[in-house]
């Protein structure tokens, strides 16, 4: 399954983003996926990404081309450029929801605040006003919480570098490696 | 502060939504300059999977010690007051050579403090959460501060105790303006070694602490303009007051949240 992680700074500027994939596709967590998606094999193409399912119980056939087919309306393959733009767009749209929620809920972990088709948006608000937003398809609350918490920890360590300015994009390869290792462990 | 050109007076007037320093603290370049679009038809650039740095010469190795260092504060790592006084006097001298007025002087100290405060604000809750003082089996989930009075008392007690080993001496609300709060410190530790000459009597080197407080208030979502003022009195000749002037939006939000 794929995930999209973005860190949004205090000025609503992106600091870091990553497209993550996980091998845990057919685990027990699939039980909590909405019933529209419970095909036996994890499908890599969904209705909003072109290739509308035609038959009943369909949707399990991945679109081989990875590009939106001419006759169907869609955004293209999930892992293609079009699909990635959708993920950026969904994450961006969820910022409004985060602002709605953040003054009513004192926690840092805001789980499942927004939904767009198969994407669920969870967020982690740091005390310094940075928003860590994760798009996910599976409901894996504990893993996601641990992953977001570790991302926060890694971010704080980045910030502790005196040469790192607040709200500047994170380009450290170590940060990238840490986030990916954490994703492999928890997602 | 290496970027001297950015400290022109016009910056002071440009108040952004989050901080009046944000134009200084954030880089001027747009965040996604290194990205390359995957396809020519894309409107927005898609970032590379991993950000790439310029390659190093083969005999050098990039270290990552800041990521491997543990977060808890070890005992006995407090900075000696003498060492601090020496460092602070160098900061003051360095700054004094590069400013033209007291306002600019304090602004520069304020910016230095802001850089400290924005890091403390993230670090302290993380440390408390990962390494709680009490040995509870599972620490409570980390929380954010939503209301004005808790954040003020957090600054007054927790932050102050972390920085200086004791809480501040007073926390008051201004009687004249309801958007102003004052944190009083009878003998501020950072300025203990500073003797301000008479012709610069308006200067308060506590501007550094004001910058720390401003960063904490800004980051926690309570944008404010924080300044330090020397208010000498007979029992406390070194008394400093940190004046917190909140943005109107904070008071409006407080009023909206008031029913809860």
TrEMBL record, chain A:
One of its GO terms (biological process) is endoplasmic reticulum to Golgi vesicle-mediated transport. One of its GO terms (cellular component) is cytoplasm. Residues 62-71 have a biased composition (Low complexity). InterPro entries: Longin-like_dom_sf, Sedlin. Residues 57-78 are annotated as: Disordered. It holds the Pfam family Sedlin_N. Gene3D superfamilies: 3.30.450.70. Transmembrane segments: none annotated. PANTHER family: TRAFFICKING PROTEIN PARTICLE COMPLEX SUBUNIT 2 (PTHR12403). This is Sedlin. It comes from Leucosporidium creatinivorum.
TrEMBL record, chain B:
Residues 1-59 are annotated as: Disordered. Residues 46-58 have a biased composition (Pro residues). One of its GO terms (cellular component) is TRAPPIII protein complex. It is found in: Endoplasmic reticulum; Golgi apparatus, cis-Golgi network. CDD domains: TRAPPC5_Trs31 (cd14943). Residues 14-45 have a biased composition (Low complexity). It comes from the Eukaryota. Residues 1-13 have a biased composition (Polar residues). Transmembrane segments: none annotated. Its main location: endoplasmic reticulum. The keyword Metal-binding does not apply. The keyword Transferase does not apply. GO terms for biological process: endoplasmic reticulum to Golgi vesicle-mediated transport. Keywords: Endoplasmic reticulum, ER-Golgi transport, Golgi apparatus, Transport. Part of the multisubunit TRAPP (transport protein particle) complex. Belongs to the TRAPP small subunits family. BET3 subfamily. This is Trafficking protein particle complex subunit. It comes from Leucosporidium creatinivorum. The lineage of its organism: Eukaryota, Fungi, Dikarya, Basidiomycota, Pucciniomycotina.
